């Protein structure tokens, strides 16, 4: 349901991302409609009108803003980030430098900040992770250390070994005998997510901005094994199902979950997966559902320990008073996810009735 205009105007001034995709502003003086997060100069209160969907704005005669691109499913990111990221993925073996960025017409400091905002790492770190992931894949397929070193663009054998060791915590020559987890970035309308998986399933799926992410990665490396960026069929399937979810077509995830925890945590995580999209539960309700009515606080701790966001939907848990409570991916994302699910669950229900 569209909020009142005063609330939406306040969200426009604050560039509140929780309304992205659920509310749009039309500017009467320009005939353009925008996302509430549009970085353009804010119009006066009397010159705006709000819409609950893009079609309503277009039907009213407004044109989409070329700056915030309200017709795009994904939120707009820096043009430099999109272009450079695509070049890195197309040439993962290349050793990118600031000079390369300048040759492409981009300011290195602008690119560095864009990558830091979206992925929590610098441009150089992102490029290096892709390059080393390519090398690790060479080793996994039976290639020699020298082949992997050349694939990664390293002239120095010792430099390559040091880089691999920092990435996955082991020497290259020993890697084929150890289980290696594969990591991949998944871009979503509300920010980049880091996914980690192996043949057993998904071990981690978290937003890049989650403060606990470095600790979770370190814990995962110690519990399961080293981590390398690269391609994996499990991650390809996850990316496809995530795309279906954010497009509002399906909230059903069939990829297996492989995160480890205590028996109690596993019970809570399974209970979370029983909450239908478009619905919420309180900690107390989950405690009663698992026959532990005396343990709502323990349920809250288990909820917070979940490392597979969205698929294990800890965002569907709210306070007994209806408040959103905490969320590691930030409260605005929790609000966005709940509204997104409420809308497409309602659409599916309406479609089933007709």
Automatic annotation (TrEMBL):
<dbReference type="Pfam" id="PF02870">
    <property type="entry name" value="Methyltransf_1N"/>
</dbReference>
<dbReference type="InterPro" id="IPR036217">
    <property type="entry name" value="MethylDNA_cys_MeTrfase_DNAb"/>
</dbReference>
<dbReference type="Pfam" id="PF01035">
    <property type="entry name" value="DNA_binding_1"/>
</dbReference>
<dbReference type="InterPro" id="IPR008332">
    <property type="entry name" value="MethylG_MeTrfase_N"/>
</dbReference>
<dbReference type="Pfam" id="PF02805">
    <property type="entry name" value="Ada_Zn_binding"/>
</dbReference>
<protein>
    <submittedName>
        <fullName>Trifunctional transcriptional activator/DNA repair protein Ada/methylated-DNA--[protein]-cysteine S-methyltransferase</fullName>
    </submittedName>
</protein>
<dbReference type="InterPro" id="IPR014048">
    <property type="entry name" value="MethylDNA_cys_MeTrfase_DNA-bd"/>
</dbReference>
<dbReference type="Pfam" id="PF12833">
    <property type="entry name" value="HTH_18"/>
</dbReference>
<keyword id="KW-0227">DNA damage</keyword>
<dbReference type="InterPro" id="IPR016221">
    <property type="entry name" value="Bifunct_regulatory_prot_Ada"/>
</dbReference>
<dbReference type="InterPro" id="IPR004026">
    <property type="entry name" value="Ada_DNA_repair_Zn-bd"/>
</dbReference>
<dbReference type="InterPro" id="IPR035451">
    <property type="entry name" value="Ada-like_dom_sf"/>
</dbReference>
<dbReference type="InterPro" id="IPR036631">
    <property type="entry name" value="MGMT_N_sf"/>
</dbReference>
<dbReference type="InterPro" id="IPR036388">
    <property type="entry name" value="WH-like_DNA-bd_sf"/>
</dbReference>
<dbReference type="InterPro" id="IPR018060">
    <property type="entry name" value="HTH_AraC"/>
</dbReference>
<feature type="domain" description="HTH araC/xylS-type">
    <location>
        <begin position="102"/>
        <end position="178"/>
    </location>
</feature>
<keyword id="KW-0808">Transferase</keyword>
<keyword id="KW-0010">Activator</keyword>
<dbReference type="InterPro" id="IPR001497">
    <property type="entry name" value="MethylDNA_cys_MeTrfase_AS"/>
</dbReference>
<keyword id="KW-0489">Methyltransferase</keyword>
<keyword id="KW-0234">DNA repair</keyword>
């Amino acid at each position: 349901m569209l909020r009142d205009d005063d609330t939406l105007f306040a969200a426009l001034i604050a560039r509140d991302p929780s309304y992205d995709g659920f509310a749009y502003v039309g500017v009467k003086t320009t005939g353009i409609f925008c996302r509430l997060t549009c970085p353009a100069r804010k119009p006066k209160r009397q010159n705006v009108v709000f819409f609950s969907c893009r079609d309503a704005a277009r039907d009213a005669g407004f044109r989409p803003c070329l700056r915030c691109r309200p017709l795009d499913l994904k939120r707009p990111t820096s043009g430099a980030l999109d272009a450079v990221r695509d070049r890195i993925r197309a040439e993962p073996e290349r050793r990118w430098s600031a000079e390369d960025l300048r040759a492409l017409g981009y300011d290195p400091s602008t690119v560095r900040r864009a990558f830091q905002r979206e992925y929590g790492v610098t441009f150089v770190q992102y490029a290096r992770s892709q390059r080393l992931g390519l090398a690790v894949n060479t080793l996994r397929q039976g290639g020699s250390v020298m082949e992997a070193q050349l694939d990664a663009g390293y002239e120095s054998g010792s430099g390559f070994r040091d880089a691999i060791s920092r990435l996955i915590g082991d020497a290259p020559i020993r890697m084929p005998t150890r289980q290696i987890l594969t990591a991949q970035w998944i871009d979503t309308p509300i920010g980049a997510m880091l996914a980690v998986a192996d043949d057993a399933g998904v071990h981690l799926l978290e937003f890049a901005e989650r403060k606990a992410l470095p600790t979770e990665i370190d814990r995962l490396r110690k519990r399961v094994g080293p981590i390398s960026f690269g391609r994996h069929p499990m991650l390809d399937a996850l990316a496809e199902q995530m795309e279906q979810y954010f497009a509002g077509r399906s909230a059903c995830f069939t990829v297996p979950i492989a995160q480890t925890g205590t028996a109690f945590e596993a019970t809570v995580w399974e209970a979370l997966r029983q909450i239908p999209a478009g619905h919420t539960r309180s900690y107390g309700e989950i405690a009663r559902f698992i026959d532990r009515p005396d343990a709502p606080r323990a349920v809250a701790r288990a909820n917070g320990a979940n490392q597979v966001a969205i698929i294990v939907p800890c965002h569907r848990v709210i306070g007994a008073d209806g408040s959103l409570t905490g969320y590691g991916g930030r409260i605005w994302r929790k609000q966005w996810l709940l509204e997104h699910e409420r809308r497409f669950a309602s659409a599916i229900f309406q479609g089933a009735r007709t």
